[in-house]
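__Record contents__

***
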Amino acid sequence: MDSVTRTTRLLVVDDDPLVRAGLRLILSAADDIDVVAEASDGADVQGLVDLHRPDLVLMDIRMPRMDGLSATAALRQRPRPPEVLILTTFTTDSYVLQALRAGAAGYVLKHTPPAQIVAAVRNVMAGEPVLSSAAVRQLIDTVTDPAAGAVGRTRREEREKAEAALDRLGAREREVALAVAEGRTNAEIAAACHMSLPTVKAHVSHILTRLGLNNRVQIALLVYRAGRV
């Protein structure tokens, strides 16, 4: 890493002290990542974020008092919140979907090789969504199976709501949203859609603001629910 690379301030949240120790060892070895604090429960996250101002929270799901999904949702409601990367052993469709809806920028499994966990942190901070292959499979199953992921409404209602949201966007914004759902980077979108990089970034920012979304993962999730991919 060169000297101008910005250091990512990281908060690790997991109820297992051995897991926290291992993650600190792995992540602190990267010269662009600084583990500024640890928490053993989601209930402690808000106070530690106030104190240490991390850029990213590495969040487990199952914890004694407040689970990682609830902690993520509360955290992402803050003004200028840190990014959240879920790191867990669980890949059920409800967990993946709830995490992404809560505003997590990624979902990675604990058995992921150390180098890939470091890469996931860097990718999230670069604005790129990060999903393990197992999480992707669960997400695809959820948005394609009529019986899966029904949280308070039918799949048809979910699809109609997503379609209505996308219809609020301009034609170029919908084009960018579709490209985001296909997993393209800003640079790839710029090349494919014949836009400048600043224009793509402006479109992504406007999509997030207009639709009340947290990140690119939620854009992709909305497009999938609308059946556009």
